[in-house]
């Protein structure tokens, strides 16, 4: 892999995942050595968001965090949840509300509960004028319907880990949303369609992410022994995206970094 001097930002890292328990600091150091910084740590539950915020606070300017409740965890929400997310969001290193949205693929939380707490988090983001870090799986129609109902108040939103259809992408772009692309684009089985769709995304709406420890790029020449993805592989994803778009890696690196800096205000 060609190493570049250009900085790139990983907008989605599940760094508080248990698989990073033993070497979290080393993971961050390896990423920084590759010019991948800052990292945006994804909050997926109240406890996880608190942990991500606490860890990010140790490295000012190098790490940031989101605060939110993933639809899988919506069933754990109660009346105090939004208050606690609001408190987290007041911290300078917490830069977005999410990961929030709808997931009808696994239905780990009842769908009506998912919708309720998704709407609550949209309202919180609009109140605080923070970006939304969004998740959608097999729930596009309800997802878009809810977001359109709040569109005029939403400051900024990124559809994290986009893997959808051309029509879905068109809808998000028409709504002026940003798009996050992961190592899914490196999977010749599931991600083939993304290699064409990424060409449709304007550079000022495109951001890249690993979603580590998940979605390890399938075409890595030297695969991690434990199969764990980590932020240092973001440059591999960058090269895949650039190749698909017919652009240089430097151009895509510069553009996606600028877009992420403006989106998250970092």
Automatic annotation (TrEMBL):
Q: Name one GO molecular function term.
A: hydrolase activity
Report which superkingdom the organism of origin falls in: Bacteria
What PROSITE patterns does the entry give? Answer: TATD_3
SUPFAM superfamilies in alphabetical order:
Metallo-dependent hydrolases
- Record-linked NCBIfam families: YchF/TatD family DNA exonuclease (TIGR00010)
UniProt keyword terms in alphabetical order: Hydrolase, Metal-binding, Nuclease
The record's Gene3D superfamilies line, in alphabetical order, gives: Metal-dependent hydrolases
Protein name as catalogued: Hydrolase TatD
Concerning InterPro entries, the annotation shows:
DNase_TatD-rel_CS, Metal_Hydrolase, TatD-like, TatD-type_Hydrolase, TatD/YcfH-like
């Amino acid at each position: 892999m060609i190493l570049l001097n250009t900085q790139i930002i990983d907008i989605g890292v599940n760094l508080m995942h248990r698989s990073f328990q033993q070497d979290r600091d080393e993971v961050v150091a390896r990423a920084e050595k590759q010019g991948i910084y800052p990292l945006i740590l994804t909050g997926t539950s109240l406890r996880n968001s608190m942990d991500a915020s606490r860890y990010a606070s140790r490295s000012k300017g190098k790490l940031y965090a989101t605060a939110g409740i993933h639809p899988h965890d919506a069933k754990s929400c109660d009346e105090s949840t939004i208050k606690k997310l609001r408190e987290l969001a007041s911290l300078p290193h917490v830069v977005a509300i999410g990961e929030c949205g709808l997931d009808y693929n696994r239905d780990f939380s009842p769908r009506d509960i998912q919708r309720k707490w998704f709407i609550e988090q949209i309202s919180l983001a609009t109140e605080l004028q923070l970006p939304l870090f969004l998740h959608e799986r097999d729930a596009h129609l309800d997802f878009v319907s809810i977001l359109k109902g709040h569109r005029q108040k939403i400051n900024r939103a990124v559809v994290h880990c986009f893997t959808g259809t051309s029509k879905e992408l068109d809808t998000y772009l028409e709504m002026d949303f940003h798009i996050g692309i992961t190592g899914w684009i490196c999977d010749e089985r599931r991600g083939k369609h993304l290699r064409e769709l990424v060409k449709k995304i304007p550079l000022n709406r495109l951001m890249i992410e690993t979603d580590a420890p998940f979605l390890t790029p399938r075409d890595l020449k030297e695969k991690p022994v434990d199969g764990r993805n980590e932020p240092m592989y973001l440059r591999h994803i960058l090269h895949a995206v650039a190749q698909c778009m017919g652009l240089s890696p430097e151009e895509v690196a510069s553009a996606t970094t600028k877009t992420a800096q403006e989106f998250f205000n970092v």
